[in-house]
Amino acid sequence: MNSQDKILSRNELVPWRESLRRAGRRLAVTNGCFDLLHAGHVAYLEAARETADALLVAVNSDASVRRLKGPQRPINAEINRARVLAALACVDAVTIFDEPDATTVLAILKPDIYVKGGDYTLDTINQDERRLVERLGGRVLILPGVPGLSTTQILHRLQRED
Fold this sequence. Notes:
- The chain contains seven helices and five strands, in the order αβαβααβαβαβα.
- Helices cover 42% and strands 17% of the residues.
- It has helices at 10-22, 39-49, 62-69, 78-86, 103-109, 127-135, 151-161, and strands at 27-32, 54-60, 93-97, 113-117, 139-143.
- β1 (27-32), α2 (39-49) and β2 form a beta-alpha-beta unit.
- It has one domain (3-161): Rossmann fold (3-Layer(aba) Sandwich).
């Protein structure tokens, strides 16, 4: 499958999710900026995929990343970030969202498992997202991160080298 075919519009999410349900497949969803993809992201996404039969990654839009990370980010445009993620074998689908959090995407997809990285705890993740997933019958799973690997750390190292 071509990586571009794995990038779903908002309108494609419901039919895609319904096809998974009809096939009896469990869905894990995660979200984030994924600005500079690195080995920590890959390890995290592979582990997230192991929790279910399919993994969808919801990627923050460029505007959303700027709101979260500041005017110098993102480094890579949203469609490029989505395409790189979609090219990974462990990722079944990608969608881009512009809202301040993932609640709208989560409400549409109704995931069986909502996966977040180890920089969060159940108490520090977005509580609206957590309550929504739990109310819909899904569960929230926190996966450990890879120490020393983060986009922010990579950018700091690059700045020191200039």
